[in-house]
Design goal:
The complex is a heterodimer of chains A (790) and B (160). By secondary structure, chain A is α+β, with helices and mostly antiparallel strands. Chain A is built from 19 helices and 28 strands. The mean pLDDT of chain A is 97. Classes of the chains: A alpha+beta (790), B alpha+beta (160).
Chain lengths: 790, 160
């Protein structure tokens, strides 16, 4: 029987009621008294020198209150990169300033160089059209290889190169890996592109700044996955507003997928404008502005080599990657292609030599940063594609080749050649589960049936491992992170016995308002409905680092556990006082405090009330109140893993691919709410299959974004997918956090692209074209047909 | 500015609006019914879907003035009279058919329009009907499941 509450229950989401009745409060839904509207003037060219901006006409337009240009912000700070990466030669990465508004040069189509604030949005937009900007167009830097080769044409003149860094991981592995590959009996080589994506949270970014001249306090309501981090960036780096004079509120947020981790210039603009005008200033992106300016994802060009013995035993993996960082360094952009990518390049395999080289390249395109999975999808795609190709070259079944090279359950903790220490896992068990749930034994019969209808059926496998629960501060500090990556929770027991739990994590679809109470309720033996979660408001919550990297439960959830444990410890002392017994004799179970060996008991509610009515407390030993805060810094990353199987049918006449089934067998460690976990995997699968089949971000050679609306960028629709089979019953608990959880938010997007492409290649080879070994994503009918008929 | 009259969620309303005001802006800014959302500029995403005289309409494609005298239903008008969730809304909660909630009003309005015309759709018909509603969170799996459940056909969907 499923539990009806607490850890492991399929508790229905309490936040759903407001969303289902239209009572959610997203940033653009909240009107402040006297609110004004901002609209941005954005570059039409990818690379250009700003010769002059005349705002005279715009300032005289109806309703216009203020016009800003880059000149207004030239003396404030820039939006920084959060990680310092050093190149192989020890030199630090190139880190050009990212201003609030472009100054001197515009560097991508959509780069904002001016802004108008007016009484209405329409007036602001009309006035933007009246700004006369003289921008001398320069040749655009778009193609990464050309950008590296050509130092005459630069995105940032002052740094003298388009290369941000040239990173080796681990540099000490280079010679041994080169030698192993040189002498290996078999080497499989693959060149591939990890296609550029736009995260496309359905709620466009929106920010409202306000300022109280009486107190000098600023407030920013914004679409953020991490309000405290946004506040820190604005205060410490960009505008210099004292941190204690700035409140950042991220109310209901309509999806993020990475794109709302980062601080963007529009947030600084609305704050500065609100101060100048003394009125709130709102900006909300149009969808095309979102395409032009949200941080994009992926965009790697990679060569990967896998060296093996004749029997398929892995000897070495070597990769060379160009990673696009766009025109400016977004906050996590330097960590994504390096420490979230190179460290995963051993995958789930025991392989003695691994070396990863990544060159990060500036181009005249929107900034690129972490998007669902962030570096780990790129690593997984490279590994799982080359393993599949290797299996075909060696004539070994792709599942058998994987099993032969898996890290085995008796090898944990397992330190990889790329410096991660996996704590637990069982990859054979995941493959067993995948084979069972997907009825892989029945595949040949299904393939024969497809053939009878003139279709080519293919089966593709992928495994994955990811580093989640981001992240141990000590470790990331050594790796160049400029922040710590702990999280925090405050558990406040109110006098009437119910609880308010303030968390640093931010929920924008993940269901924290439901899951965190399940944990606390389980620990206290009380009903979930007695617990409310408070998140997203820096004036109410402790300093936490927000939600991304599948970290909410593993990191913030652990902080919730720690804070709740502290509350129980304190409550026991209060109960001991009430029951006139020594503290160590108090037991607590199912919401009742009792004294060992007696019938003396006191319920939770009485202890809570007593905490706030301490008439007879021995104050030298016992403080009033019942509220505790805990910060939790993880000892290690967590390592979710999985085995995925995809079946496709290819129409040989048209190249059209139909995804017929998808099985995901994942190990997330212990599961708190299976319903929510399954939903996270299903959503991730759609994004991963979308990458493989449909989505692509295309700039032309002049830097014009050709895919800047939903008429041009193919978002997955309901009829693109089958029902998914999702299984999380293979569990190896995380060994180093209190709940034994690993995180589930990104898995689907990480493991699925390779499975889809492997399936399509399998189908085409089964159709007789055995020399076709690769097609770059997305596998549109045009690309598949062209490859089949090449 | 023109005075526009219509019935929204059973209540007669009247407000001034510019001729260029879209129905979605009239609902959101004029009437403070912010459950209807704007997710794109090109009438693709369906977050703004409402019912006008019983038909599903993307309220970003219609001028407010065109709805003069119309009966409009938004997500705020979909719950039962006693405030409890309607069958479709309850099915979305029961089957986890929403995550961030932003596309959800449009999905619920779309589902209601589908089931009015086709009370027992097949899974394929549900997926086809949702062509005009984009969700980035759920992979549509549980949205389809919720709509099938709301039509009393939970058994008819493919095994998970």
């Amino acid at each position: 029987m499923p539990k009806d509450g607490g850890i492991g229950a399929r508790s229905k989401r309490r936040e759903d009621v407001r969303f289902l009745t239209g009572r959610g409060k997203y940033t653009d839904d909240i009107q402040l008294p006297g609110q004004t509207y901002a609209c941005f003037a954005r570059s039409q060219v990818a690379n250009g020198r700003i010769a002059g901006i005349d705002t005279t006409a715009a300032e005289k337009m109806p309703g216009v209150l203020a016009v800003f240009t880059g000149e207004d912000f030239k003396d404030v700070g820039g939006n920084p990169a959060g990680w310092l990466i050093n190149s192989r030669d020890g030199t630090p990465m190139k880190e050009p300033k990212r201003p609030v508004l472009a100054h001197g040069k515009v560097r991508h189509v959509g780069d904002a160089y001016a802004a108008v604030v007016a009484e209405t949005y329409e007036q602001a937009r009309d006035a933007v059209d009246a700004i006369e900007a003289e921008i001398e167009e320069l040749p655009a830097v778009i193609d990464m290889a050309s950008a590296l080769a050509n130092s005459d044409n630069l995105v940032h003149d002052e740094i003298g190169t388009n290369q941000c860094f040239d990173w080796g991981w681990i540099e000490d592995n280079r010679e041994a890996t080169d030698a192993a590959i040189k002498s290996a009996p078999h080497v499989t080589t693959l060149h591939l592109v990890n296609n550029r994506l736009v995260p496309n949270a359905m709620e466009p970014r929106s920010s409202t700044g306000s300022y109280d001249p009486g107190t000098g306090e600023y407030e920013l309501r914004t679409t953020s996955q991490n309000p405290h981090l946004t506040r820190l960036l604005i205060s410490a780096f960009v505008l210099g507003i004292p941190e204690n004079k700035l409140t950042v509120i991220a109310p209901d947020v309509g999806g993020g997928f990475g794109s709302k981790i980062y601080h963007y210039g529009e947030e600084a603009l609305v704050l500065a404008a609100a101060k100048r005008l003394g009125r709130p200033v709102r900006w909300t992106a149009t969808r095309t502005e979102a395409f032009l300016t949200d941080a994009h994802g992926r965009d790697h060009v990679t060569k990967i080599e896998l060296a093996t013995e004749k029997d398929g035993k892995f000897i070495a993996i070597r990769t060379e990657t160009m990673a696009n960082v766009g025109a400016y360094l977004s906050n996590f952009s330097t960590a994504t292609p390096t420490f979230l990518h190179g460290t995963l390049m051993a995958g789930v395999y025991s392989v003695p030599n691994v070396y990863v080289n990544v060159k990060a390249v500036f181009t005249n395109t929107a900034p690129v940063d972490a998007y669902r999975g962030a570096g780990r999808p790129e690593a997984t795609y490279s590994i799982e594609r080359v393993v599949d190709k290797c299996a075909r070259e060696l004539g070994i079944d792709p599942i058998e080749l994987r099993r032969k090279n898996f890290i085995k359950p008796d090898m944990y903790p397992y330190t990889t050649p790329v410096a991660l220490q996996y704590d637990s896992g069982n990859y054979d068990a995941l493959v067993d589960k995948m084979e069972e749930r997907g009825d892989l034994a029945g595949f040949e019969a299904r393939a024969a049936e497809s053939k009878s209808r003139g279709k080519l059926r293919g089966l593709g496998i992928s495994t994955y491992i990811e580093a989640c629960g981001i992240a141990p501060s000590n470790l990331v500090g050594q790796l160049g992170s400029r922040v710590g990556l702990y999280d925090a929770a405050t558990v406040r027991v109110n006098a009437t016995g119910n609880l308010s739990v303030m968390v640093g994590a931010h929920s924008h679809g993940q269901g924290h308002e439901t899951v965190f109470p399940q944990i606390v309720a389980d620990m206290l033996g009380i009903d979930e409905s007695m617990i409310e979660i408070v998140h997203g408001d820096t004036s109410k919550i402790p300093f936490g680092m927000g939600t991304y990297g599948s970290r909410s439960l593993a990191v913030c959830g652990s902080a919730v556990v720690k804070a709740t444990e502290k509350v129980i410890t304190k409550a026991k002392l209060i109960a001991a006082h009430m029951l006139e017994a020594p503290g160590e004799e108090v037991e607590f179970e199912d919401g009742i405090f009792s004294i060992k060996g007696t019938n003396k008991t006191v319920p939770w509610g009485d202890v809570a009330l007593k905490a706030y009515i301490p008439h007879d407390f021995p104050l030298e030993n016992l403080e009033p109140g019942l509220e505790e805060t805990a910060f939790y810094d993880p000892a290690n990353f967590t390592y979710p893993s999985g085995a995925y199987a995809c079946e496709v049918e290819v129409d040989p006449d048209t190249g059209e691919v139909d995804v017929l089934s998808f099985v995901a067998a994942d190990d997330f460690g212990n599961v708190m709410n299976p319903m929510i976990v399954e939903g996270q995997v299903q959503g991730g699968l759609a994004q991963g299959i979308g990458q493989a089949m449909l989505e692509n971000t295309t700039y032309d050679e002049n830097g014009q974004l050709l895919s800047a609306s939903y008429m041009d960028y193919t978002m997955p629709r309901a009829d693109d997918f089958p029902m998914f089979t999702v299984d999380h019953s293979s569990v190896t608990p995380c060994t180093h956090n209190p709940l034994g959880v690993k995180g589930c938010g990104e898995a689907g997007a990480i493991g699925s692209p390779a499975a889809v492409v492997n399936a399509v290649i399998d189908a085409i080879q089964r159709g007789g074209k055995s020399d076709l070994t690769h097609i770059d994503m997305p596998l549109t009918p045009a690309r598949v047909w062209a490859a089949m008929n090449a | 500015m023109t005075k526009i009259n219509m019935t929204v969620n059973g209540r007669a309303v009247s407000a001034e609006a510019e001729d260029r005001t879209l129905l979605v802006e009239f609902l959101r800014s004029g009437l403070n019914l912010t459950g209807t959302h704007v997710g794109c500029d090109t009438s693709q995403c369906g977050a703004c879907l409402v019912h006008v005289n019983g038909e599903a309409v993307k309220s970003c494609t219609m001028l407010a003035a065109e709805a003069e005298g119309a009966e409009v239903t938004t997500i705020e008008g979909m719950a039962n009279a006693d405030g409890s969730l309607s069958t479709i809304q309850a099915a979305f909660q029961e089957h986890h058919g929403l995550q961030c909630g932003f596309c959800t009003p449009g999905m619920v309005m779309s589902a209601a329009a589908l089931l009015k015309d086709n009370p027992k759709p097949s899974e394929a018909e549900v997926r086809d009907y949702l062509e005009g509603n984009i969700c980035r969170c759920t992979g549509y799996h549980n949205i389809v499941k919720a709509i099938m459940a709301a039509s009393g056909q939970l058994d008819a969907i493919a095994a998970e």
